[in-house]
């Protein structure tokens, strides 16, 4: 089930308004998110900006990481919610407002 959701999100990843609508439809389904928590935007930005800098240096690149870092940098959100969807083949980190009305971006990676 989660693999289908991840594939759907991957297909619409560049259309954040569609992602918002999709997340609103699925967010209350049982066992979708393996974890979900909120942190200050600055804290998550520092972590993922460091990971982005390291990925440039090391050549290990996760799809969506630069876009997420840029949107977090310029966002006016105080807190950012990080929600994880684990699938069998791929997984996805979703960065959003706490109520999912704003999606900053998603990072996709192979398992």
State the oligomer.
single chain
Helix vs. strand class? alpha+beta
Widest beta sheet: strand line-up: 1-2-3-4
Mean pLDDT: 93
**Helix and strand succession?**
HHEHHEEE
User: How large is the share of residues in beta strands?
Assistant: 25-35%
Shape: globular
Query: How many domains?
Result: 1
Radius of gyration: 13 Å
The count of strands amounts to 4
Low-confidence stretches: none
Reported for the largest beta sheet, the result is: 4 strands, antiparallel
Residues in helix, %? 40-55%
Helix count from the secondary structure assignment: 4
Terminal CA distance reads 16 Å
Topology:
Layout lengths: L1 H11 L3 H11 L8 E6 H18 L6 H10 L4 E8 L3 E7 L6 E8 L1
Features:
alpha+beta; 111 residues; four-stranded antiparallel β-sheet; 45% helix
């Amino acid at each position: 089930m989660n693999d289908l959701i991840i594939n759907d999100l991957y297909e619409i990843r560049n259309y954040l308004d569609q992602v918002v609508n999709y997340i609103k439809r699925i967010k209350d389904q049982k066992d979708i998110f393996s974890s979900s928590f909120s942190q200050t935007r600055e804290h998550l930005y520092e972590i993922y900006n460091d990971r982005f800098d390291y990925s440039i240096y090391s050549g290990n690149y996760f799809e969506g990481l630069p876009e997420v870092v840029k949107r977090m940098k310029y966002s006016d959100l105080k807190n950012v919610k990080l929600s994880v969807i684990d699938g069998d083949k791929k997984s996805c980190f979703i960065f959003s407002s706490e109520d999912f009305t704003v999606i900053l971006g998603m990072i996709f990676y192979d398992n």
